[in-house]
């Protein structure tokens, strides 16, 4: 404390010396460089913690320019971080009016989020990586250019295995097997046999080229393996049935073997443990009803089902093995390995496990668990599941189709979604291990990814792109994905896409209400507050605790329909006064003339004593070339302290010196600046607002002004041009994003914020968020 008072006395002596030196036109700029708190400051370092980004937004206008769309720009996704997302800019746009603005944002901001609100109130959010100083955001869907994908979907929709023959009439010369025939009955090479009545017993095939037709009822009493050789046939005709007394293995492992169940035929409806294995281009043609324990297809075997097939375990493997379901197929577990499965009818299974296969679903497919490794999955109708895992898979959804279930895990997977297709996940979608992409490929129509929660494990592991709407409110953050326009986010339950229901989709019904324009002027309610911190010893050096005046600032324009400002409201919060002299503050609008100001009003009536400013009827300071708006004078008195020698809210907790420091409530008020005509928003952005501190009063010819680095003094400043120029690269005030935790009394900002000096010496390229990393020493930061 004693050191600070001594510094104040020395400052007065130094300041008098400076004035005398100025009168002699002598000034020594080397003094500042040699004695400044930081040495070897890079040239052209501007001390600014903020930057500007020129943003152009093209709204998706479905009302042909009849209404305005509200555009807002945030630093966080307002869907996932509703409480944390800070509004950076706001305006309106339409089909014929793009929204263009210069966004002021903290340096190092990695991503911005642009929200479009339709005339009906529906909101969509896009996100962009901040690179350079210009950015264009386009909410409009794009024409689909991926003709190969769309062609593949159309081909897959009709890609079935066509059986050349499904009707096998019983030859007239067939040898009849009846109830009096022996058991086992051995079929001879080259002959045809028929069971027209009932036969109970065993039947054995011989060496091939044998056909057995069942028109009646065969009750197989044997558990011996039934093996069909080359060109053998087993045909269950209409009205025919085979039942089994014992578990049986049936094999059709040679070329051109056919097992056929006609439309009114029945096979093992008593559900004995019957296992059927087919290979080497053997065919299983089911038009009736079949029950099996295990069904195995391999090495080019074929299944063509138009009837009702029920199987506990269904395995399909090896190249050229094909399954076509045009009927009803129910399986406990399906295993596909390197094969083709085309589903055109109802398909249900507990577990559907594949590897390196192609699955084409043209009907309704229901499963509890799907595990799809590699290969291609084309959904041309509806897939319903409980848990779906994809690894190295390509999943394609045709237009107006649905893939819906409880949870989904994707690893190194590509998902292509045509317009109005839906992926609906009631619980969690997880991205793990390898990067995956979801791409909306509709022709100017959006697809919908609707998910309760997204869990991403890995840097940028998920990419969302194309004409895709993502309905989700729970997500880990922007570091885990890439989102490319026109893909966008919407909050849970707030999808904007209207999709009619059909046999292949539950659809998506929205009822947004009637369209209407915003109420103008709209309030650009920026929630980003800045902290203005000042060292009041200018042009001396002081102790650089940067708490001689601590003020939080916010700027809110009232915006017209053509994105001009009718007025500007400043939100001001005086938090600390560490100065021991009368201190006030003002704002110079460097790009606004006094004639462009209509009126200035204040929400509080205790801001002025009439000692520091002389103002005109507009509320502007007299004798200024630019518009200068007084903000307040005598900050001590506003804080409720009438002795300017007392410092307010600067001593660390427990270290307040009686009679030297006090703790007081912060003081909030607003200053509204009304313009005589609307002005461009970029003239009153935060980076254009020339805030400055004043020491002195209106009765002195000129006064001491302390400006932020890079800003010019007003016409009433007492600082000579040489001093102003020589101190231009140094700092006595800073504007810090958000509400800054300022240093305690007599604690240099270098101690309070260890990264501050590193930031300065890097020329502002490193340690951009130095103000978020205070010292771990509690005494260094005011609390």
TrEMBL record:
<dbReference type="InterPro" id="IPR031025">
    <property type="entry name" value="LruC_dom"/>
</dbReference>
<dbReference type="Pfam" id="PF16130">
    <property type="entry name" value="DUF4842"/>
</dbReference>
<feature type="domain" description="DUF4842">
    <location>
        <begin position="567"/>
        <end position="771"/>
    </location>
</feature>
<dbReference type="InterPro" id="IPR032295">
    <property type="entry name" value="DUF4842"/>
</dbReference>
<protein>
    <recommendedName>
        <fullName>DUF4842 domain-containing protein</fullName>
    </recommendedName>
</protein>
<dbReference type="InterPro" id="IPR012332">
    <property type="entry name" value="Autotransporter_pectin_lyase_C"/>
</dbReference>
């Amino acid at each position: 404390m004693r050191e600070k008072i001594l510094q104040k006395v020395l400052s007065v002596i130094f300041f008098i010396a400076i004035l005398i030196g100025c009168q002699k036109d002598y000034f020594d700029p080397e003094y500042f460089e040699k004695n400044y708190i930081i040495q070897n400051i890079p040239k052209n370092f501007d001390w600014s913690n903020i930057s500007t980004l020129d943003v152009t937004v093209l709204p998706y206008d479905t009302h042909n320019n009849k209404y305005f769309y509200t555009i807002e720009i945030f630093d966080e996704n307002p869907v996932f971080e509703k409480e944390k997302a800070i509004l950076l800019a706001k305006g309106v746009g339409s089909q014929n009016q793009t929204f263009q603005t210069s966004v002021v944002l903290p340096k190092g901001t990695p991503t911005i989020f642009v929200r479009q609100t339709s005339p009906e109130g529906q909101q969509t959010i896009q996100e962009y990586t901040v690179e350079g100083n210009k950015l264009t955001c386009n909410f409009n869907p794009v024409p689909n250019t991926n003709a190969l994908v769309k062609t593949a979907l159309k081909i897959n929709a009709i890609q079935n295995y066509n059986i050349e023959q499904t009707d096998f009439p019983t030859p007239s010369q067939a040898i009849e097997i009846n109830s009096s025939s022996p058991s086992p009955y051995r079929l001879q090479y080259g002959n045809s046999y028929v069971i027209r009545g009932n036969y109970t017993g065993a039947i054995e095939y011989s060496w091939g080229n044998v056909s057995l037709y069942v028109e009646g009822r065969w009750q197989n009493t044997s558990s011996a393996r039934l093996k069909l050789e080359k060109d053998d046939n087993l045909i269950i005709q209409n009205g025919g049935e085979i039942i089994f007394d014992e578990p049986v293995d049936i094999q059709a492992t040679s070329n051109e073997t056919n097992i056929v169940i006609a439309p009114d035929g029945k096979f093992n409806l008593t559900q004995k443990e019957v296992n059927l294995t087919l290979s080497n281009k053997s065919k299983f043609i089911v038009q009736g009803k079949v029950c099996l324990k295990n069904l195995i297809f391999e090495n080019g075997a074929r299944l063509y089902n138009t009837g009702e097939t029920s199987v506990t375990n269904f395995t399909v493997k090896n190249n050229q093995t094909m399954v076509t379901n045009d009927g009803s197929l129910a399986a406990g577990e399906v295993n596909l390995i390197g094969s083709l499965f085309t589903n055109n009818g109802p398909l249900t299974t507990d577990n559907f496990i594949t590897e390196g296969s192609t699955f084409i679903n043209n009907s309704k497919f229901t499963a509890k668990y799907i595990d799809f490794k590699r290969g291609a999955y084309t959904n041309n109708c509806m897939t319903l599941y409980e848990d779906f895992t994809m690894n190295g898979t390509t999943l394609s959804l045709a237009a107006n189709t649905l893939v819906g279930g409880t949870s989904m895990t994707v690893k190194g997977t590509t998902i292509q979604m045509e317009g109005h297709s839906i992926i609906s996940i009631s619980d969690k979608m997880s991205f793990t291990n390898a990067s995956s992409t979801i791409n909306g490929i509709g022709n100017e129509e959006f697809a919908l990814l609707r998910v309760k929660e997204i869990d991403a494990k890995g840097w940028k592991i998920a990419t969302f792109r194309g004409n895709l709407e993502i309905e989700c409110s729970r997500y880990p953050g922007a570091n885990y994905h890439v989102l490319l326009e026109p893909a966008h986010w919407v909050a849970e339950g707030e999808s904007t896409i209207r999709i009619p229901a059909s046999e292949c989709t539950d659809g998506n019904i929205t009822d947004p209400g009637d369209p209407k324009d915003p109420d103008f002027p709209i309030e650009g309610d920026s929630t980003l507050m800045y902290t203005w911190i000042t060292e009041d010893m200018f042009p001396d050096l002081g102790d650089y605790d940067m708490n001689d005046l601590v003020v939080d600032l916010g700027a809110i324009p009232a915006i017209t329909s053509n994105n001009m400002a009718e007025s500007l409201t400043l939100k001001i919060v005086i938090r600390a006064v560490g100065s021991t002299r009368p201190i006030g503050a003002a704002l110079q609008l460097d790009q606004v003339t006094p004639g462009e100001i209509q009126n200035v009003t204040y929400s509080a009536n205790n801001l002025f004593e009439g000692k520091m400013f002389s103002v005109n009827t507009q509320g502007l300071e007299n004798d200024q070339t630019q518009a200068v708006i007084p903000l307040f004078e005598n900050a001590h008195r506003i804080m409720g302290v009438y002795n300017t020698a007392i410092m307010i809210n600067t001593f660390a907790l427990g270290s307040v010196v009686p009679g030297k420091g006090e703790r007081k409530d912060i003081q909030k008020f607003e200053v509204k600046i009304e313009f005589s005509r609307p002005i461009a928003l970029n003239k009153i952005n935060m980076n254009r607002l020339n805030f400055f501190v004043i020491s002195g009063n209106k009765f002195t010819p000129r006064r001491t002004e302390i400006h932020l680095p890079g800003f010019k003094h007003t016409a009433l400043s007492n600082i000579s041009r040489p001093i102003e120029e020589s101190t231009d690269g140094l700092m006595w005030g800073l504007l810090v994003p958000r509400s800054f935790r300022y240093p305690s009394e007599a604690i240099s900002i270098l101690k309070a914020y260890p990264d501050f000096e590193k930031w300065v010496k890097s020329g502002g390229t490193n340690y951009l968020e130095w103000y978020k990393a205070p010292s771990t020493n509690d005494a260094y930061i005011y609390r």
